[in-house]
Amino acid sequence: MIVIDVGGKVFRMSLTTILDSRHSDTTLARAVLNNTNYDAITKQYHFDRNPKVFNYVLDYYRSGELHAPLGVCGEFVRQELVFWGIPGKAVSPCCAHKLGQYKRRLQEKTAIEKEFSRRSVDDVWPVDGEETRGCCCSDRTKRKLWLFLNKPRSSKAAMVFFLVLFSLIILSIVVMMINTSQSLRQPYTTREHVMTRLQNSISAMNITNEKISMRITTTGPLFAFALEYICVAFFTVEFILRLTAERKKCAFLCSTYAILDLLALIPSYVDLVVKGIFFAAALYENYTYITLFWIIELFLVLRILRLFRLAEYYDGLRVLLLSLKASWKELVLLEAFLMIGMSIFGSIIYYAEIMEENGYFSDIMIGCWWAVITMTTVGYGDTHPQSSAGYIVGTLAATFGIILMGLPIAIIANNFSKYYEFMAEKTEKRKTGKEEKTQKHRGIIQVKEFQVKNQLDSFKHSKVNPQKF
Predict the structure, then answer these.
(1) If exposure means fewest CB atoms within 10 Å of the residue's CB, which of 26, 311, 360, 365 is most exposed?
(2) Sequence-separated (6 or more) residues with CB below 8 Å from residue 386
(3) Residues in domain Ion transport (predicted)?
(4) Which pLDDT score is estimated for 456?
């Protein structure tokens, strides 16, 4: 029988149990064999470790099974097992999930922190180090410019700039919507012969869609045109300034937000150049230019991508985007389930309604459309079954759809909850840090005021002759 002192608590154990061949690689077995950590006076082995966890380590030596203690941090238990040389596979199945759960949470937290991490000005323009030795005025200016553009809370001017940027992003979207209003659009030109030739070109192309004809023969109101290009000019200057403020310009141009900016800006400039230079002169001579015009009109919708720029500043939108990014496997799974259900119920409803002469399901493709609308519980009502067999299929499709949509969405909602909790925790830490900094600053001021007061009191009570000064 040997005596083991762990953290001030004494344990006794049989020598044969410790030296069992199953435990030969453990820390305790090596200590007994090599007489390490042994006190000859007290005849005890001393280990400065947690005695509560060691109780479970002893049980492992006796029974060969390791159970995790309740109420103890999983990472702490893991560290203790590493110290005692006990492999992780020795943990019994009933407790393995406790240790694995912490590991998974740690990996998730690390991944979330990486996703939420944002560049600081020191990452782009470091103050210290070899990169800034002999730092020129231009580098210092770029550092300030980077803070101004990327950190709204860095100064009042930066906050004003952010508010203007936010307002213009919203304004550009509103202007795009106004330009589609038929009541606000104006004829492309007041010259009747030009409009007549334009109408003839549209007729020659057999364009009967009134919305397309409206987009070609009319233009948005003048105030919308002015606001649109004010926004374009602002976003262009802002993009150039951001590019100027970056040290690694190629990496910036390959970033997500830079690509979104370019996708939103380029169509506006193409639209201005083509319509202003080529369209007015050549469209009426050759109606094939109308195709080019319409392609440009389609690409103008890319301006809506500016909304994603708000995720750079607004954590709530960032949480949503990161949650969707983390749930891409579940989204693929959802689409796969939806495709399976669509194929099954779309085919069945076609044959279930095949006897209906005035039915809506003329082919399986329409049946697939109906299946998607039914399974997602949208129910437009444009297509619906009319027979008893069709009603049964519709009931099964709706029931299957509820189960189908519920499974992946629960996982997506869980990911959103994780990101949101992390954001709330991060916000709380930031507030706590500011409060502690403020209290510390107040304490320093109070100490300095006290020191100055003591010095004044000492000067008043001193016997120094003022005439000497």
Answers:
(1) 365
(2) 353, 356, 358, 359, 360
(3) 160-421
(4) 65
